[in-house]
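Translate sequence into structure tokens.
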Amino acid sequence: MGFKLRLLSWWTPKWFQKRGLDELTSSTVQGLQELILNETPELEKLPLTTPELSQLKTSKIILKGNLKEKRKYMAETHNKLVELMIKTLGKEKAITLGREAMSSAGLSLGQKFKKMLGVGDSLEEVILAAKILYNVLGIEFTIKESEEEGLVMIVHRCLLAEYYTHDTCLVLSAADEGVVQGLNPRINMKFTERITEEAPCCLASICMEGIN
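Result follows.
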């Protein structure tokens, strides 16, 4: 295990958390903006309000304030874009394409953080990296293993769930799944329950291929 990964798993400085949050926000917001613009070439003809259109013309999201304020602003921006995506594309198409776009964005982020943190191929290192990144988002989880269910990630606390709508959570959780695969392409994670669906915690199944 690399020194940087071990150190950040013990203590993650505020500057790193803010940088990570900026990276996550920029990638996911840009992915949603591009999806809407690519799928609606005649956007100007749609009955959209000026604030809705402005959501698509913001080239760079600048998060201000402390970590809590930054998370809230990011979540509210995600909500607005997902709502706009559903309004322009229809709910079913928006959710499907939105998840695909966020999975792709998450994959790229995971690959980037893998290099930045020096994450190896073991499950232990992937879990440590995921905890560092989830700490940035105000999310806490544990991993449970059972004969019936295999490996399951249990999210006990998620600050984003205080702001996300169910639809936003459904779309953006695909970014989490993509990040894990970016950290290790032989690991697949899939959410099965969400706090935004009034579940007591989020659950995600973890499937591995030849990893100890």
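Note: Strands lie at 139-146, 150-158, 187-193, 202-208.
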